[in-house]
Amino acid sequence: MDPADFIDPNLTGPDVLVLKQLLDDAQQSDHQPPETSLRRRQKDETGPADEVIEKLTALNNPQDPTFEATVFVTWDAKDWQKYPFLDKWILQPYVRLARQVVRVETDVVMLTHLLLYFATSVPSAILLFLQFHWAHGILHWIMQSYYVGTYTLMMHQHIHMGGILKKSFRWFDELFPYITNPLMGHTWNSYYYHHVKHHHVEGNGPEDLSSTIRYQRDDLFDFLCYVGRFFFLVWLELPLYFFRKGKTNFAFKAAFWEIGNYAALFLLWRYVSWRATLCVFLLPLMQLRVGLMVGNWGQHAFVDEVDPNSDFRSSITLIDVASNRFCYNDGYHTSHHLNPLRHWREHPVSLLRQKDRYAAEHALIFRNIDYIMITVRLLRKDYQHLAKCLVPIGDQVGMTLDEIAEMLRRKTRRFSEADVKAKF
């Protein structure tokens, strides 16, 4: 499979529309002199992109006849509509009910997954503490490993939007993370304090504890230092960061929940069952801590050497199955940093509305690769493969593969302290 030509059949419908529009734009730009493209933009002509934007907007509008809620991550409406009896008597009644429960009517899938977790993860964990078997323990961990990506990005929506269910279900909306978060490897409330109150405030800048700028992003030793710092020190560094910023309340809360979670795990290990604690809580915790940093490294590996403060130039966009079908459009990371409160279903249409700005700002858009594999390819210094995955926009159109590879290589360079002072 050549990533430069392949369009994954498992892409979401919106991703297919966005990708084809970007590829069409690149093809037109490649065959037209720059002044022609400029005149077209200045005239603000209505074209295919406007039709795609209109279609995507309608899909997200509950008042539109073409509105489509997301019910599952694996199947789209067109898939389960092939079974009329199932669709009419089971799925449609469920969707109607679920739309009255979730905060945003597109998000039926989040209720679907809450039901899944409380039907599988929770009873499995309880059973392990009641009657432990190693086979069950390992299978439970594998199940949680499969769930954790989708769950984490559901919680990503939860912490940014203050919940995912309607206000009448607020009690459960606020309660369930205290049950399910530790099962997936999250310590209580740490994701909120680190991601919302810290990372999005600092934006991968010098004071961001998960910033990549002081690391050589294609170097294995630097990567291990980056992961190790978060793995072993975040419990201390995050409260200290809040203290330095004068946010004492956040500092005490972040420390309380993080250390409180560790204390609970110690008590379970020491006095209840160390084997169940290992499989239910500790293995997911250690796995997620590594996974979060592997993902964040990929999200912020390419930082512009000229304007690293720009959200367009310090984060990237991915059009791929793993990030967008299974993880609530997590691939649209630039769009998310531009507006952290933007709903996940709005990212594709937002990109198309701003595609000229993305091009003018030299933003990076990739396809057929996820954040984990971006990290892997970087550590292998495989810039040729990464160049093949780039969807060219703006000045990138017409660049050779070698030129793109060299451009990407420049954006992974470590910033010296002198660079940091000059650029930030």
Structure overview:
This is Phosphoinositide 3-kinase regulatory subunit 4. Residues 25-48 are annotated as: Disordered. Pfam families: FA_desaturase. This protein has helices at residues 13-30, 34-43, 48-59, 77-80, 84-99, 108-119, 121-130, 134-161, 170-184, 190-202, 220-244, 248-271, 274-299, 311-314, 321-324, 333-338, 347-353, 355-360, 371-379, 383-389, 401-410, 417-423; strands at 316-319, 364-367. It is mostly helical. The chain has a domain at 1-25 and 50-68 and 301-423. A two-stranded parallel ribbon has the order 1-2. Helix 11 (220-244) packs across helix 13 and helix 20 packs across helix 21. The longest helix is centred in the middle third of the chain and has 28 residues, at 134-161. The protein is globular. Mean pLDDT is 95; it is low at 34-46.
Notable features of this structure?
424 residues, mainly alpha
- Spans with pLDDT under 50 lasting ≥5 residues? 34-46
Overall geometric form: globular
The sequence of SSEs as H and E is HHHHHHHHHHHHHHEHHHHEHHHH
Cα radius of gyration in angstroms: 22 Å
First and last CA, distance = 40 Å
Count up the helices: 22
Strand content: under 5%
Could you give the count of β-strands?
A: 2
Give me the side-by-side strand order of the main sheet.
1-2
Mean pLDDT: 95
Q: How much helix is in the residues?
A: 55-70%
SS-derived structural category: mainly alpha
